[in-house]
Amino acid sequence: MRRRSAGLVGALLAALLAACGAPPAAPAPSTGTIRFASYDFPENQILVEVYAEAVRRAGLPASVQHGIGTREVVAPALQQGVVDVVVDYLGTATMFARPAFPDLPATPEGMHRVLSRTLGGRGVLVLDPARAEDQNGFAVTTAFAAENDVGQLSDLVPLAPFLVFGGPPECPDRPLCLDGLEDVYGLRFGEFLAMPSRGATVEALLSGDIQVGLLETTDARLAVAPVMLLLDDRGLQPRENVVPLVRKDVADRWDGLAEALNGTSALLTTGDLVQLNRAVELEGLTPEQAAQRWWGTG
Hints:
Layout: H1 6-19, E1 34-39, H2 42-57, E2 62-69, H3 71-79, E3 85-89, H4 90-97, H5 108-120, E4 124-126, E5 136-141, H6 142-148, E6 164-167, H7 178-185, E7 191-194, H8 198-207, E8 212-216, E9 227-229, E10 242-247, H9 248-253, H10 257-267, H11 270-281, H12 287-294
Helix pairs in contact: 1-3, 2-10, 2-11, 2-12, 4-5, 11-12
């Protein structure tokens, strides 16, 4: 992971304070490069490298800052002009931008319209979504599923009070994680353990430290570990197409930026995303190396 500069950390803190009610800061001045920022999990870091490489191939300068944090940090940083491009997921981004929206549209096209209207007023363009999609999933071991005859999330209702759930630290407050599992399924687990990574989640499942854990649907470990995702039989998760978000002033300033990002979205599939994750999670490549291999330059 590349070192964070003190200036960027300070600017991110200012953006976060602005999101919490302090006066908004003026957009950061141009640095002569298009600044990509990723969330704090590997798949998003891979995606940022894929899109940043597309921009470089178009002859434009791009820098990447990895692991900035959760949406509470990264979203205001984008809107405040501290960073220029974020690669997001359509359903989650829409819910985060419009938390009071009564009913999330069921289709990617509908969510794209809502998100575009919402972020457009904040100086952010929502570009073309990719076919690639990654939703939150909830995993158990195959042995647990067989012993307890569970295959879908609703099967956990009578068991949940006796089970330990593992997920990222922010999971209890997320509408698509524990908060949503309680609202949609009535699932109330006996205990929650914060997991530092998805790899740690799989290890905790296999060791029995947890019985249910959050894993994304594109996690490459699902193909090699004795774990399985439970069916989301009540439709908690929205469509989660990968979608680049870019500041409008940056897209206007750099000719060809939007075209390079949209061109990447036109190519990227869910199968590609699984293979990119596999390259990092199982083969040991860095996100940058995996992206270069996907583009045929590594």
